Please model this.
Amino acid sequence: MSAEATNPEARPEARPELRRRGRTRLDLRRLGRAALLGPTSRDRLPDAIGHVAEAHRAHHPDADLSILRRAYVLAESSHRGQMRKSGEPYITHPLAVTLILAELGAETTTLTASLLHDTVEDTEVTLDQVRAEFGDEVCFIVDGVTKVEKIDYGAAAEPETFRKMLVATGNDVRVMSIKLADRLHNMRTLGVMRPEKQARIAKVTRDVLIPLAERLGVQALKTELEDLVFAILHPEEYEHTRALIAAHAGERDPLPAIADSVKAVLRDAGIAAEVQVRPRHFVSVHRIALKRGELRGSDFGRILVLVGENADCYAVLGELHTCFTPVVSEFKDFIAAPKFNLYQSLHTAVATPEGYVAEVIVRNRQMHRVAEAGVVALGNPYAHAAAEAAAPAEAGSPADAADCDEERVDPTRPGWLSRLLDWQQSAPDPDTFWSVLRAELAQDREITVFRADGGAPGTISLPAGASCIDAAYAQYGEAAHGCIGARVNGRLTSLASRLSDGDTVQLLLAQDASSGPAADWLEHARTPAARIAISSWLQAHPDSVKPATAPARAPLSVVGARGGGGNAVADLPDATVRLAGCCTPVPPDAVAGFVVRGGAVTVHRIHCAAVAQMRSLGRTSVAVHWRATADCRVTLLAESFGRPHLLADLTEAIARQGVEVVSATVEPPVEQRVRHTYTLQLPDATGLPALMRAMRDVPGVYDVRRA
Model:
């Protein structure tokens, strides 16, 4: 916006090598002259937005341009007399921002709001005037990108502006689309700013705007922003990379020949496809150089194959892997498993007979549009809902999908954005919001886990590296303070356990409503929502903070008189037989025995990890069989919530099954969870499943398993 506008001629980033191929750059001087002449007659489009109209009609041939003319007239008249720091009329800035969006395929409402995006902030135009002339949609978007008053917020103005834009983006992603295009144009024209201000703006762009562009899938904006930031914050590396690219330009590029070979292969296979060579941008070349060291000619670009249908993508992949040597480690299928920012493509790499390795991207044309423009390519997410909810709007005016103050649900809202919207409500301090926002956006991968309880929604989206604690707060909010454990893929695990993509999670909550989190939960929480909720509870309950580990106390034990190897018999005369405590074998388990120190034979289940370890050490196994008698001894672990009379109830349940308790150990409660260890003598091994079911049916017991 106005504070960031400067001279495009002064920046090295305005040089041709940083321009994306095929993207038209505005002639600001010509636009400035056109703007100074003012709007034309009502019957024709002003010359100054001819670029915008041409780019818009390329994506939307039937678009009604009259609203763009009216928006330009208001923007030009309200900004008249204002100049950028470069000396150009200020209207050139909203025109440039609007052209960026038009080239990405933005629909008419977005372009209208883009032309007006600085009017409420920098001129006498009001939101009521925008609403009256252009409708609620344009009003909402313009309000979303308007900065908060610095006189009201002082040093907190920047974080509060981003908070406001973030909330508005949660209701309409087009708000952030305009902000990204606005920042791109300001970064292109950053030359006359003081170096320290250039660095400050570049750092905010790097930490906030570039991650947002990545998450919204707007790669065309993201890559150019990365290059511009790279040139400002890392000038030496930038110059080195520029020299590498310049040196490569004078050499023979092998990629066009490889692309021709790919075309011939696909033509012979009868697959209609467009094959392009896509040069890497500066930051991408820099990353490849760091990864591979010395660069070869094929490292400076990638081959893009565009087809018509999804099935054609896999047909292309089959031909490439048949006719070239595939690099298996480089294959990624983002069609079957799209990225969290809507990106879909097949990625592979093939080696040629000449020894070059070329990266190949395969996608259909719709995937390509979304890969380049992200949410901008999705158009108006409310058009269908508005058509159903209200009568069609008048020609030339946007549909009134919702009142400017109403919250709307964007069907394209991804999980990460929902998380940000949730936790920002709990972060009233601007500094906390600003620091946590940057930390959250630094997480560049996302995982999806499934709820085992079948509740809605059935999935939870979390950043990579998230733990069960994060899943608990994402699912239950503050009720997660009482979470005492979790099952991941059916197995009991600690709350600190990290989750992987596709895991199924069942969270266990205490029955005591006064339960609270432990202090060490903060060490394992990754999401802002979890960290803020835990910190708030700990601050509000300083006397109730639970220690990270339970105090050492002797467990309560009840020990019977029996021991030994049960009814296991080793084929070794006079040997003492012991059942291993690590796997507690019972009839009719397949078992193996090993002689240990003292001459005793320890019996393990055949699949016990100790068996493999013994064999790796060269130990010879001893044959073991079960006596004909059906009785057996087994050790069971029972996990439960702490409550009065639990031990008595469990002992009674065991006794009802006709089972003798040889020994019982009850560990001290930890976070309201109690572990019981029972060594039991069963009259018949076949009764073990019924015994375990009876123990699980005791109120408060949530897991029973063999030791």
Notes: The longest strand covers residues 632-641.
